[in-house]
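Two folds, back to back.
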Amino acid sequence: MYFGKKIAVVMPAYNAAQTLRQTYNEVREQGIVDEIILVDDRSHDDTVAIARSLEGVRVHVHERNTGYGGNQKTCYRLALETGADIVIMLHPDYQYTPKLIPAMASIIANGLHPCVLGSRILGGYSLKGGMPVWKYIANRFLTLAENVLLGEKLSEYHTGYRAFSREILETLDWGKNSDDFVFDNEMLAQIFWHGFTIAEVSCPTKYFPEASSINFRRSLKYGFGCLAIGLKFRLAKMGLLRSELFSSTPRRGAISSG
């Protein structure tokens, strides 16, 4: 519990055996996490066996590989079922440090912002942490384009370290989103569509062979998908396009197109 809020950490896992225990230990060290939920997307290593050996971890194993977005859908559904007030998505590959969990939870618990992102760009940690130069350049280009299309000012849209309030997860129709990596960007666009605000905290990041990553071909597909989402958002705000992503009515207080 933190300020009376139940905290759940969800881990979408795929072949994370080498780093899972280290990630788990550091999550526990933070002292505020009530639930740890790991959803395995048909790993080929010992991820499930290790997860089941860790005290207090709820383990859910998919019968088939559903993709990164499909994995997150299960994570958020299970977290809501436990009664979590704040849900923090953390990759079990130890690319992002669990030491930011209290800071991210505090921002939401104190009512400052309902969503918090761990940014690799703020503080210049991306290249220092080993992010490939081509990925950094792509990140900066996509972020600039998305900020223009969505009318926002995030430092990056592509981090895998995210915290959400229960209200956001109950408001967004994320069940209709992609099962692939572009799910992350669809959620951020939907958050802005409903007028929620997003905070960012500077996050040190590590890149090493065990850390999850996608290859150039899938990165290219992801990049075009992100641009398509931004364009759909802008056209939907202007009333020129009907999109399933933004079909629900924005919540009261949501900002109209700018």
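---
second:
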Amino acid sequence: MTNPENHLIKVRLEKLERLRAAGIEPYPHNYHRTHSVSQAVDLFELEETGDDHRIANVSIAGRVVAFRDLGKIAFIDILDERRRIQTLFRRDLMPETYHMLHDGLDIGDWIGAEGSIFRTKRGEVTLEVKNWVMLSKSLRPLPEKWHGLTDVEARFRQRYLDLIASPHARDIAIMRSQIVKSLRSFMDDREFMEVETPVLVSVPAGAMARPFKTHHNSLNRDLYLRIATELYLKKLIVGGLGKVYEIGRVFRNEGLDFYHNPEFTMMESYEAYADYNDVMNMVEQAISTLAMDVLGTMQIEFGDEEFDLRPPWPRLNLHQEVKNGSGIDFLKCSDLESLQAEMNAVGLDTGQQMSWGGLLDKLISDTVEPKLQQPCFLVDYPVEMSPLAKRNRHDQRLVERFEGFIAGMEICNAFTELNDPIDQRQRFEQQEAMHRQFKDDETDRLDEDFLVAVEYGMPPTGGLGMGIDRLVMLLSGHRNIKEVVLFPQLRS
């Protein structure tokens, strides 16, 4: 802490003592407001009939963000969770407490104010205060440039200051909540049941990702933070719950970049008797509906481009798109060495990949995905990349899997789910063998309890995993995931 900061905190502590000496409790237990700022302003504007119109007996609460002292009157701007309002304090209306504005109040404090709403001659809706109370004395001054906090690291590390400083930051937080609410409504309207599954799991399965590991003392065993909710949700399908979904955090011990945070929010859903074609239809309906609910349009801007979310979206064959983008026919390169040679020949670095599936994933990421700008589905992946997906009904080398893309970002991943227990066991065993051979934590793992569940019989099922953070990035126009996660992970 700098010396000037020490001095300012000392001054505020002295004001705190003056408040208490005057019989004012600086940290009361509660406050009953009649309106939020938005409600008060909207009500006034709805009922406004002329220059002298007023609404009496309005009480609001919020943080002091501006203080203009004119001697016998003072203008104080108050910011609540959504909106800012000007308040007018007059010495003649509060002779006993007016002096405490000077002796006890600072920018950053929280206050409650009661009075009447009117419009000033300059046209600003204002609360004329007849009573006010301190709700929380701020001991730390807001940053010097709090009204336009530009230090990116400070914004992410101290998100509370970002929310105070930036209406845009608050808008993103509110939009995120609206998106999740709209998505829940969309799923509920289709008779999906929202459920909860374990976060601490004994086998980190359901995706190809490196897990976080922890230890449970009472059980005396290692556990992992879940990397997906898939296997538990499919157990519920086995149990006869025909349509289920979960919106929750998943955790993957991977790198940090503009599109990845180690903990992120996903919605996973599973529908009995459906296949990946049904899920594609649901996804394009869901995202276009969310855009309409939140933004009022299905045509959005992201960066310098416009995107049309209206269904239907094109279905693009993965095999053909890879050939178009790189000239490589991966179905003719069925082993690691041949695919590696083809990729090296077109200038792609393959040094970090140890498996055929890993190589192909890099090939797709480098040569296909960046070109997928307008909404589309990339369909029919190789079996080696998708241990939980059902084989394609027309080509057994492929599975019925799609990924949805908008603006070059993967938004979702979905399958016709594999419900053949024998095939599923064989694929999990292959993944386990790769895990042992390559010491690769990013292979899927064999979960014996899940295999036993599928052996009791799972109906045909369509499954979906959709990234909420990237959906919020898309609809809010941000290319950095840290902008849409309230408390992102950051480097030390």
